[in-house]
Write a structure and sequence with these properties.
Blueprint: H1 3-14, E1 19-20, H2 22-26, E2 42-43, H3 48-61, E3 64-68, E4 84-88, E5 95-99, E6 104-108, H4 113-120, E7 125-127, H5 139-144, H6 152-155, H7 158-161, E8 162-168, E9 174-177, H8 191-194, E10 203-213, E11 217-225, H9 228-242, E12 246-252, H10 254-264, E13 275-283, H11 292-303, E14 308-311, H12 315-326, H13 329-335, E15 339-344, H14 350-364, E16 369-375, E17 380-386, H15 394-405, H16 433-446
Parallel strand pairs: 2-4, 3-4
Antiparallel strand pairs: 1-2, 5-6, 6-10, 7-10, 8-9, 8-10, 11-13, 11-14, 12-13, 12-16, 15-17, 16-17
Length: 471
């Protein structure tokens, strides 16, 4: 089938305006995945029933479907090729129910995280998952990648906050796994199979999220320490001092921090620290606690584990502090194209890993910078390496990132970004062979012809493909 035939196949089901090809498609942004629309066809269904019919038709004609959310993923999980049809949930963007008493929100998969934040805020509630891409990432993408973010130390990852969902299987079956109860042990919890599966087992069309009481106030601080060990001591002290009120604990190594601070033109803390961090705490109720974080910083200075630090005195200053941590795209704008990595280690192994990694990249990848930051509270490091415009240099950088990682036990090649296409060959570093075999059996059971996001996570059964002559 050529692109025209594919368009004619789906138009009667979802409407011609919802089958996007040609110039209409080229005008769209591809997000962080340049190959998002390489298949040449994008479908934008408006309901779960539409998605079901699309899947049924696609299976009947041997066409693979690649589900897409906000296109903010970093592992090429939304890449399409000839013979693969992109399917966006963007028109399924309604919040269906928000129950402040039960503390849950049910919404279609195309709803953005920011929409949920805005809807819940007047009720004194908030979702537990928060990401820098909150304005564009969708609930479907958040669920299918098991997103983590900046508050995982307090609320856990997406998996810990999703109570139920609805998913469409490869054959068009609509699987209703929705749930609004905190306790429900009625048989297998099948929703967990779809969370983090990157659209390879089913297309998530609806989600029920648990909501949490929104803090009446937050306090945010930017700190600088002599080294990682001192930052660990600050983390241990913060956990003891704030308990469940500790919302975020982030880290930035100097190479990363200096680039962002220079770009923003800010000098909130000394440029001579060995590592930097962001601490955010939440406070509930009417009791004034505006000085608790300041008092905590003062004690850390007295204990000799802080070199510098400042607590935000305004919302504007708080936003600047978070910009220092979240504006990672500045690195590429200043240094050129970078490769992004997302690894997880035990806290005690982080100093050794970063030191060895920086040494190996400097030795084996001349001219490539190594910019490290991440969620120190949960052992999740993000690494940007670049400039790396030449694909031939990617293997050397990959070799450094994952080669050094292998020297430490209990690590993961993906703490929160998923596997997609980019990390398939490295997945065995984090999952033993029997586990990979079980994953393949699950894929075969739910999608025997590999029609859903084929070749993502691991190589699987081939789908029928177009030849270049068909286009």
């Amino acid at each position: 089938m050529d692109i025209k035939q594919i368009s004619e196949l789906f138009a009667p089901t979802i409407g011609a305006r919802n089958v996007i090809t040609g110039e209409r498609l080229t005008l769209r942004g591809t997000g962080y995945c340049a190959a998002s629309f390489d298949g040449g066809v994008l479908l934008t269904p408006g309901s779960a029933q539409d998605v079901s019919e699309v899947c049924r038709l696609a299976a009947e004609h041997g066409l693979a479907i690649v589900p897409q959310g906000g296109l903010t993923g970093l592992v090429q999980g939304t890449a399409t090729a000839l013979g693969q049809v992109a399917l966006s949930l963007e028109k399924m963007n309604r919040i269906l129910d928000l129950d402040p008493v039960q503390g849950v929100v049910t919404a279609e998969a195309g709803v953005t995280l920011q929409q949920v934040i805005d809807a819940a805020e007047p009720l004194g509630l908030a979702p537990g998952v928060d990401l820098p891409s909150r304005g564009s990432c969708t609930l479907g993408g958040l669920a299918s990648t098991n997103a983590g973010g900046i508050q995982a130390i307090r609320y856990g990852m997406a998996r810990d906050n999703i109570l139920g969902l609805e998913a469409v299987l490869a054959d068009g079956t609509i699987l209703d796994l929705n749930n609004t109860l905190l306790k429900n042990n009625a048989g297998y919890d099948l929703k967990q199979l779809f969370i983090g599966s990157e659209g390879t087992l089913g297309i998530i069309t609806k989600i029920t999220l648990r909501l949490h009481s929104r803090p009446s106030s937050v306090q945010t601080a930017l700190i600088g320490c002599a080294g990682t060990e001192d930052l660990f001591q600050v983390l241990a002290s913060a956990r003891k001092a704030f308990g469940g009120s500790l919302l975020s604990f982030e880290a930035m190594w100097p190479e990363f921090f200096t680039q962002i601070a220079t770009h923003l033109g800010t000098d909130l803390v000394s440029p001579d620290c060995g590592i930097y961090g962001v601490i955010e705490t939440g406070h509930w109720g009417d009791v004034g606690q505006d000085d608790t974080l300041t008092a905590f910083l003062a004690q850390c200075f007295e204990d000799g584990i802080l070199l510098d630090g400042v607590a935000a005195q305004s919302e504007s200053q708080r936003r600047t502090i978070w910009q220092l941590r979240e504006d990672a795209d500045v690195i590429e704008s200043r240094k050129g194209p970078c490769l992004s990595y997302d690894v997880g280690l035990r806290l005690s192994d982080i100093p050794g890993y970063v030191e060895q990694l920086q040494e190996q990249i400097a030795r084996e990848c001349p001219g490539v910078g190594c910019y490290v930051f991440g969620h120190m509270g949960d052992g999740n490091l993000h690494i940007m390496a670049g400039p790396a415009p030449d694909p031939a240099s990617h293997a050397a950088i990959d070799g450094a990132i994952y080669g050094v990682l292998q020297q430490f036990p209990g690590t993961t090649v993906s703490a929160e970004h998923g596997i997609g296409l980019e990390k398939r060959m490295h997945l065995p570093l984090s999952r033993p062979t029997p586990a990979l075999a079980a994953m393949r059996r699950l894929k075969t059971a739910f999608d025997p012809q590999s029609m859903l996001n084929p070749s993502k996570v691991f190589d699987d059964l081939p789908c029928l493909a177009l030849s270049k002559e068909d286009v």
